[in-house]
Amino acid sequence: MENIQILKEKLQIPQDVVILSHRNPDGDALGSSLALRTMLNSMGHSAKVVLPSNYPYIFSFMDGVDDCIIFDDDKEVALERIKKSTMIFCLDFNGLDRIDKLGPSVDESKAYKVLVDHHLDPEPFPDFTFSNTAASSTCEQLYILFEALGLEQKITLDIATSLFVGIITDTGCFKYSTNSDTYRVAAALKTLGVDDYKLNDVIFNSLTQKQLELLGHCLANRMEIIPEHKAGIIYLTRQDYKDFNIIRGDTESIVNYILMINGIEVAAFIREQPTIVKLSLRSKGDISVQELARNHFNGGGHKNASGGSAYAKLEDVINRFKSVLPNYIKKETHA
User: Fold this and answer.
1) Do domains 4-204 and 209-334 have the same CATH topology?
2) Which among 53, 54, 42, 50 has a CA at the least distance from the CA of 19?
3) Which of 92, 156, 206, 297 is deepest in the core (most CB within 10 A)?
4) Which position has the higher pLDDT, 42 or 177?
5) Nearest-angstrom CA–CA distance, 291 and 42
């Protein structure tokens, strides 16, 4: 395995470690970051998680999450921590643009850089890359890295729980992006005592009344089905954001409801924000929303789950999506 022995040797010496993940961290970003932090600190390293922006409140139960440094809140502290680090772990992102204003500091740093990820086309900035696009999640990849480093016996219940959070959130409770390792790793974590029932309940059954009302609004008033292309769109306007007082995490997973409709194979969730329009894209089968996002919306991600953005009017973004959509579903339609 590429440079694994070098990484092993470096981890035998106490390091000042910064663990980074992407802006708007999800369960996989947080789970992998917190699991690695706990593991490294137990090995005698000084590890700290630095995030570009804050995390959704539903993950506030996770061990160590309140100890993360949030760049948006403590810019100088975050940059100073990166500056003095001897090792940097980059988790759940494939390019420095995903960590926004932290990117230049990481690029300039002389620290040994490790990338653990599962997204397509990782950039060549790290010294050691442990990436597999077939993996369900970065948490799955991190567990496999622990195995490669001979650390699986050091996985505590807290570490196992953090890893399990990333797996269930990135797979939608094992509904997509799974492989044989996904279930092998999940079984190992369960054996260590992970309470999967409790985690599913805390994460997926924690909607507020406002969030449920927002979901109802999206389904009743903001959804458009395009049957000839087996696709659906849900959009939100800036006024919707004001009317529902939408904050981070309120729109999580709304895009997935479109794919619950029989016969729908592509879903787009398009949100008008103050200076930008953002898209979350999902698909089934061989339809690559990753290509669609990359080619038309400055985005990327996974084949069946990607995101993008555009500096344009909401109506123009919706029309652009509709116009390019046939180019990505025609081979599926002809099959």
Assistant:
1) no
2) 50
3) 92
4) 42
5) 41
Nearest residue to 117 via CA among 109, 126, 108: 126
What the block records as the tokens of 102 is 């932290």
DSSP-H helix ranges across 155-195? 157-170, 180-191
| Beta strand 277-283 pairing with 305-310 | antiparallel
CB atoms under 10 Å from CB of 243, counted, come to 12
Question: 209-334 belongs to which CATH class?
Answer: alpha beta
Query: 236-251: per-residue pLDDT in tens?
Result: 999 999 999 998 889 9
On whether the CB atoms of residues 139 and 166 are closer than 8 A, the answer is: yes
b/e map 247-277, b = 16+ CB within 10 Å: eebbbbebbbbbbeeeebbbbbbbbbeeeeb
Amino acid at 174: F
Residue type, 255: V
Domain ranges of the chain: 4-204, 209-334
Of the given ranges (84-88, 107-111, 146-150, 297-301), which has the lowest mean pLDDT? 297-301
Burial class of residue 334, CB neighbours in 10 A (0-12, 13-18, 19+): exposed
- Please report, as a single letter, which amino acid is at residue 185: V
Average pLDDT for 170-187: 94
The DSSP output letter for 227 is G
Give the mean pLDDT of the chain: 94
Tell me the CATH class for 4-204: alpha beta
Closest CA to 172 of 250, 92, 282: 282
| Bridge partners for 236 per DSSP | 271
Distance separating alpha carbons of residues 304 and 255, to the nearest angstrom: 12
DSSP conformational letter for 135: S
